[in-house]
Amino acid sequence: MVSWRTGAVALTAVAIVFTSACGGSEGGQAVGRAKETVAVNPEDLAGNVPGLDAPAGQLTLANDPNLGPIVTDATGFTLYRFTNDSARPSASACVGDCAKLWPPVPAAGVTVPAGLEAGLLGSLKRPDGIDQLTVAGIPVYRYAKDTKPGQVNGQGVGGTWFATLPEEGVPGLEGVLDAISGGGAGNGSGADESAGSGDLPGMSTVKHPELGEILVDGKGRTLYRFTKDTDWPMTTACTGDCLQKWKPAALIDKNDVRGIDPKLVIPFKRPDGTKQQTIDCWPLYWFTGDKKPGDVNGQGVGGTWFAVAPDGKLVKK
Asked: pLDDT value at position 36?
């Protein structure tokens, strides 16, 4: 999860135009989306989450063991984004009961973590009159079910709420995130998620003694496909807890390959706004159970995960 993340990490959503055989396009955040209506259970609001009038104070970059770098307020409560919001221009689609469960963070009295540019912070005037904090244009919220600092109970709720942010480089941010994550927490594995490593290209093929020619990433990790995904339209069925074990492959330059047709190297925008590498429109992943280059411990897991041939097809040997 730029997540507030490693590598090229992002705080803005942008349109991605595909020039590949997929023939489609992925749009960025759109203005004018429907406001969210939420049925609120009073028990959901019984925690210690700060109220609407609680300033965030000094923001902090924290390293969640599963998600990687996240941003918290001065008291350690996680800040979230809502994918139905707009970043350019900044606009919130969370109003009414939604804002009770997801209190907007007030813009007053906020300062950036050491090393980040103050210009990343901004504000928007909400329909209820509150000035809400934005980070690189994205409105941020707390979550009422986070009852103590460090919790991330809002991550992935409804497929629209995330502590992580989309991948796009933001000046002044990447280096700090790399440092806070110990050199690249990426999707929370504790391993560097950048695509390249040493002399390997971003993606290449290797000859496995049992599986034959399979794809590996720039760190030599075996790449896998999930049979519940689809290639057109490109969709992923690996979300939520699935991402703790299966990490979306980082984007690479389509020409940074060896043994692979560059025309098959296509980017994919995930539901949370982050970007993932595909081969012939099939999303690619690496497996946290593979501890060293050459491991194929993910092969056949659950009857749904398989290594990938250079043309994008499943390897089921």
From this structure: 55
d(CA 125, CA 313): 49
Query: Which is nearest to 176 in space by CA: 69, 66, 57, 59?
Result: 69
The model's confidence at residue 264, banded by pLDDT at 50, 70 and 90, is: very high
Closest CA to 314 of 222, 214, 237, 246: 214
CB 16 within 8 A of CB 176: no
* Cβ contact 122:65 at 8 Å: no
Tally Cβ neighbours within 10 Å of residue 220.
16
DSSP lists the bridge partners of residue 211 as none
Closest CA to 312 of 265, 274, 244: 265
220-242 per-position pLDDT tens digit: 999 999 999 999 889 999 998 89
Q: What is the pLDDT of residue 51?
A: 53
Task: Give yes or no for residue 5 having a pLDDT over 60.
Answer: no
pLDDT digits (tens, 9 = 90+) for 100-134: 999 999 999 898 765 566 778 899 999 888 899 98
The closest of 127, 121, 59 to 91, measured between CA atoms, is: 127
Cβ neighbours around 73 below 10 Å, total: 22
Report the C-alpha gap between 296 and 268 in whole angstroms: 24
Looking at 73-211, which runs of residues are DSSP E strands? 81-82, 86-87, 90-91, 121-125, 131-135, 138-139, 161-162, 203-208
- Give the whole-angstrom CA distance, residue 143 versus residue 133: 15
Q: Would you say 92 and 32 are in contact if contact means Cβ atoms under 8 Å apart?
A: no
pTM for the structure as a whole: 0.47
Q: Where are the alpha helices (DSSP H) in the chain?
A: 97-101, 174-180
Give Cβ neighbours of residue 36 (< 8 Å, ≥ 6 apart).
82, 84, 93, 94, 95, 98, 160
CA 242, CA 272: separation in Å to the nearest integer?
14
